[in-house]
Amino acid sequence: MIPTTDAGSLRQASIGALLFDMDGVIYRGNAAIPGAAALIANLQAHQIPFLFLTNNATLTAAQFQAKLAILGIYVDQAAVFTSSMATAAWLSRQSAAGRRFWSLGKQACASRCWPRA
């Protein structure tokens, strides 16, 4: 169970934001970890920034947002950062414009790296 951490104690500890892995931390399979929804609601109520991270490239950020909503965790799509998004950012920094890349993986990864894919 995840404790519904008091937002005041986070502020006192000078924590500016929280990063959460998703599978195994916020949910396991198709079930929320007990206390996860309350924790996120508490952070939102106290305007403490957080970001969900995942190395799972099988879903888009929008699909993860929908999954979280089914589990009772309501967040903006911008609160989800996937490995596909990290890959796209890395390729962008490598001056990938005009270069050809071969994408092996799920459509969620290819659509993020190459929006026309």
Please, could you describe this protein's structure?
A hairpin with a 2-residue loop joins strand 2 and strand 3. This protein has 117 residues and is an alpha/beta fold. The strands form 2 sheets. A 3-stranded parallel beta sheet has the order 1-4-5. A two-stranded antiparallel sheet has the order 2-3. The longest helix has 11 residues. Helix 4 packs parallel to helix 5. It is 38% helix and 14% strand.
Strand content: 5-15%
Uncertain spans = none
What would you report as the Rg, rounded to the nearest angstrom?
Answer: 16 Å
Q: Sketch the topology as an H/E string, one letter per element.
A: HEEEHEHEHH
Shape designation: globular
User: Percentage of helical residues?
Assistant: 25-40%
Q: Based on helices, strands and strand pairing, what is the structural class?
A: alpha/beta
Number of strands: 5
Major sheet: order of its strands? Answer: 1-4-5
* Overall pLDDT metric: 81
Show the helix and strand layout.
Blueprint: H1 7-12, E1 18-21, E2 27-28, E3 31-32, H2 36-45, E4 50-54, H3 61-70, E5 80-82, H4 83-93, H5 107-113
Parallel strand pairs: 1-4, 4-5
Antiparallel strand pairs: 2-3
Helix pairs in contact: 4-5
List descriptors.
single chain, 117 residues, alpha/beta, three-stranded parallel β-sheet, two-stranded antiparallel ribbon, 5 helices, 5 strands, 38% helix, globular
